[in-house]
Task: inverse folding
């Protein structure tokens, strides 16, 4: 997570010196987004509109949560499969980034990992909820 | 298709599912059951939307704001403003407005401003005899200026969604931000006179100079950010990067307030915020692509044109829609969901998309503190320990003042466009 800071310093010092520094920063951001999504999922910190949800009785809330984590497992799993196919394509054609010549599989696999982890965490939460825990 | 992109997401949203999951489900159902395109388009569109240099400004501005919010920067700005206006009746209220405006030019996060500035100004205003509801209303509503005054994160997201230039949007946000600050300050002065709030001591150049000296590094941040962008030195993304280094340097070495540990902590918080926002950006990009290829915005434009409405009445309807949406959904998600639908409509009416970006942002800014669910109300409640009924009572005049400002900004495009023309050449 300190990468962000190192990255800023890197940019400040090298931005004019190293061609492709912009590209590397954007790839770091892609990783932050999708790897971070797993962290955010684990901590239940996703942005949502929970005004109505909070008004519901506890029992209804539990069923909705169950539905939510099940849906998350399915959707994130599906997205991960699509992303794996694309990342594999990047490997087989050996695509590289324009400036820094980084293999494009590196940024693309962030999406794979992010969704795969989210699907996995959703399953863990599902198991917890099914065992009767209040929060997944 | 209208089930996948209409009914389904609305139901999931109301049930309180995470917004990214609502969008991801809608697009996946649409792609799998209603369309005949390769499914890797899901990955390609999501990845493509995040692989964008312009969005890099988001983590950097969040980080700079996080760093500046942790130290004594807010206190120093308060001291500068207070020593400048302290002799006026109602000065503490004016200081709250002025400090929020300046702080807004450092950070783009509104809730943080309410918490940081509220902690300093609330006890001071209480001791000076301001009525509790007035103080609560002012502090809760004033943070909304921050998302309008650059650097503003909603405006970066709008720029990405509407394909509009961020420097132009930032320039256009300046004057409306000052307008709102001026309206609030005028109200504060009028209120203080009526409520007979005692004036402070005399204005002293020496005290003002001392405060300015202590605050000069804090005041340097907006100068660097805006001066850099409009001096033509950096792009917004680069200025955001420089702002981070500047904020880290000032808080670590000049003021010596933040330990390395806190600097890393701020990075961790930034990491989570960035991911929360950009994951929705990624999923919304597929949603917006699907709307466009299914010609939903075009149909909407046709439908509105077929009613032969006057421009002002469409704008009024859009404003009402945005105010309602803003009360329930956070600004960034609202921008991502509605920009692909609304921008074609306003374009067909001949409204400038930069001007519309400002209208959009002001509406959502009001949603940040609009009762009963505005997020800043809950920040004020939890961080500042204010009671909900007191906030609700106090906030009403401020909602009204913001609505007046919104009407002016909506129907006088020059307010937004004048500062843009002044700062950005060739627009």
Result:
């Amino acid at each position: 997570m300190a990468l962000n800071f190192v990255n800023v310093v890197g940019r400040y010092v090298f931005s004019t010196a190293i061609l492709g520094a912009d590209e590397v920063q954007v790839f770091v951001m892609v990783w932050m987004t999708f790897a971070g999504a797993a962290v955010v999922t684990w901590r239940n910190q996703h942005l949502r509109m929970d005004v109505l949800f909070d008004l519901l009785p506890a029992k209804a809330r539990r069923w909705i949560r169950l539905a939510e984590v099940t849906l998350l497992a399915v959707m994130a799993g599906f997205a991960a499969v699509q992303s794996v196919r694309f990342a594999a394509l990047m490997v087989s054609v050996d695509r590289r980034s324009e400036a820094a010549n980084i293999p494009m599989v590196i940024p693309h696999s962030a999406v794979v990992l992010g969704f795969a982890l989210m699907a996995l965490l959703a399953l863990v939460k599902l198991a917890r909820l099914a065992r009767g825990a209040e929060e997944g | 298709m209208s089930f996948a992109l209409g009914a389904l997401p609305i139901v999931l949203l109301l049930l309180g599912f995470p917004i990214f999951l609502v969008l991801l489900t809608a697009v996946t159902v649409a792609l799998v059951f209603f369309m005949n395109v390769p499914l890797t388009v899901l990955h390609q569109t999501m990845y493509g939307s995040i692989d964008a240099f312009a969005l890099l400004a988001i983590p950097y501005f969040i980080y700079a704001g996080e760093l500046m919010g942790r130290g004594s920067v807010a206190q120093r700005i308060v001291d500068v403003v207070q020593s400048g206006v302290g002799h006026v009746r109602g000065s503490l209220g004016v200081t709250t407005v002025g400090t929020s405006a300046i702080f807004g030019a450092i950070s783009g996060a509104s809730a943080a401003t309410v918490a940081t500035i509220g902690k300093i100004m609330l006890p001071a205003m209480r001791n000076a005899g301001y009525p509790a509801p007035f103080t609560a209303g002012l502090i809760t509503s004033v943070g909304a200026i921050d998302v309008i005054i650059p650097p503003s994160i909603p405006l970066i997201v709008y720029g990405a969604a509407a394909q509009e230039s961020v420097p132009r949007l930032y320039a256009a946000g300046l004057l409306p931000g000052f307008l709102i600050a001026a309206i609030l300050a005028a109200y504060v002065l009028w209120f203080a006179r009526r409520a007979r709030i005692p004036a402070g001591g005399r204005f002293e150049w020496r005290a003002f100079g001392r405060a300015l000296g202590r605050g000069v590094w804090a005041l340097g941040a907006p100068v660097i950010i805006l001066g850099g962008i409009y001096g033509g030195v950096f792009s917004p993304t680069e200025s955001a990067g420089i702002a981070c280094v500047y904020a880290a340097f000032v808080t670590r070495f000049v003021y010596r307030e933040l330990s390395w540990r806190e600097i890393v902590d701020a990075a961790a918080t930034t990491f989570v915020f960035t991911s929360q926002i950009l994951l929705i950006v990624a999923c919304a990009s597929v949603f917006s692509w699907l709307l466009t290829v299914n010609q939903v915005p075009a149909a909407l434009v046709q439908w509105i044109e077929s009613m032969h409405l006057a421009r002002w009445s469409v704008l009024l309807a859009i404003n009402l829609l945005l105010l309602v949406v803003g009360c329930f959904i956070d600004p960034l998600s609202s921008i991502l969901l509605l920009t692909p639908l609304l921008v074609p409509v306003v374009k067909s009416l001949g409204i400038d998309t930069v001007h519309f970006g400002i209208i959009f942002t002001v509406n959502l800014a009001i949603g940040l503190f609009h009762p009963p669910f505005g997020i800043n109300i809950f920040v004020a409640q939890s961080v500042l320990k204010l009671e909900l009924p007191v906030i609700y009572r106090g906030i009403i005049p401020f909602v009204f003042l913001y609505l007046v400002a919104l009407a002016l900004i909506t129907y006088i495009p020059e307010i937004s466009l004048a500062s843009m023309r002044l700062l950005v050449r060739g627009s």
